[in-house]
Amino acid sequence: MTAVPAGRRRVSDAPAVRQVTEDLVLVEVGGRKVLAAAVCPHRGGRLKYGRVDGDRLRITCPLHHTTFDLTSGERLSGAACADIRVVDVLPGDLSVPEQRDPAHDGSVAPAPGTTPAGGAS
């Protein structure tokens, strides 16, 4: 394993912003995925070109440097404007979690759409 100097991130840990629709961007940072507005409400800056602070989960508009919280959409600093819309904050691992089977005490039911171990498919 290669050591990363203090204050630096690995390339794979670097935040990524992708346009997914005309109105939404997907921000991937710190093991999270955030679906948020693609345009800054101040002057229409395109947030896909914004600077992302992965440690604080914030995005800064490239035009006038207005900063927004990526979990709530709240404007934190910069030009006075509305908050941005945050549609969803997702964990980085989107695997299907195990679900408890209410019919049996303490047993674990297979996730929907899966076959139990040893069962026919």
Short description:
By secondary structure, the protein is mainly beta. The protein contains no helices and ten strands. The relative contact order is 0.15.
Question: How would you describe the overall organization of this protein?
Answer:
- The protein is an all-beta fold and 121 residues long.
- It has a domain at 13-91: 3-layer Sandwich (Rieske Iron-sulfur Protein).
- The chain is built from no helices and ten strands.
- It has strands at 16-19, 24-29, 32-37, 51-53, 58-60, 67-69, 75-77, 86-91, 99-100, 108-109.
- The strands form three sheets. A four-stranded antiparallel β-sheet has the order 1-2-3-8, with no helix packed on it. It has a four-stranded antiparallel β-sheet with strand order 4-5-6-7, with no helix packed on it.
- A hairpin with a 4-residue loop joins β1 (16-19) and β2.
- Mean pLDDT is 77; it is low at 94-102, 104-112 and 114-119.
- GO terms for molecular function: 2 iron, 2 sulfur cluster binding; metal ion binding; monooxygenase activity; oxidoreductase activity, acting on paired donors, with incorporation or reduction of molecular oxygen.
- Keywords: 2Fe-2S, Iron, Iron-sulfur, Metal-binding.
Number of strands: 10
Global geometry: globular
Q: What Rg, in angstroms, do the CA atoms define?
A: 20 Å
Q: How far is it from the N-terminal to the C-terminal residue, by CA?
A: 40 Å
Biggest sheet, spatial arrangement of strands: 1-2-3-8
Ranges where pLDDT stays below 50 over 5 or more residues in a row are 94-102, 104-112, 114-119
Task: Please state the second-level CATH architecture of the domain at 13-91.
Answer: 3-layer Sandwich
Task: Tell me the β content.
Answer: 25-35%
CATH C-level label of the domain at 13-91: Mainly Beta
Give the CATH superfamily of the domain at 13-91: Rieske [2Fe-2S] iron-sulphur domain
